Amino acid sequence: MRATNEPETQTSLKMRKLDRARRILVASPSLIERIGGLDCVDELADLPTLAMTPWVSFHSWELIGPNDEKRVIRHQPRLTCRSMTAILDAARAGLGFGLLLESACEADLQAGRLVRVLPQWQSEEASFYIVFTTAKGMPPAVRVLIDFLVEKSRHH
After folding, report:
1. What pTM does this model have?
2. Among 19, 65, 139, 150, fewest CB within 10 Å belongs to which?
3. 95 and 148 fall within a common domain
4. Contact 21, 103 (CB under 8 A)
5. Are 90 and 113 found together in one domain?
């Protein structure tokens, strides 16, 4: 499964679109209390952040705000890893601001463990696809799974 802003171009692969999702800025109430809130998206560059990408010297968040204004925030995360669960745990613990999938944060936002920060800013919407090789010779069970995932995503 892949999440991307760009459709797959390899001709040997087929894809079926599953869903669309966006990432939102979140933090723990305790972190917001400690830093006193945010007035401007550019302030994120100097604050503790969490990133779901491999370690590099600088990270960038591409955000879209009011009137489709685009902003690239360069930041040095306090924690980077590929685990959504670990980043969510770190955000809940007040270690930094995260740019996370809205659906992954839903329960924490409702329970008050996380709060949405600068709600007028978010990532561009990404599309989720299931990517597979051509259907020729595909086992029936795989075809059924693909159809099930596509159908389930329509009712999500």
Report:
1. 0.73
2. 139
3. no
4. yes
5. yes
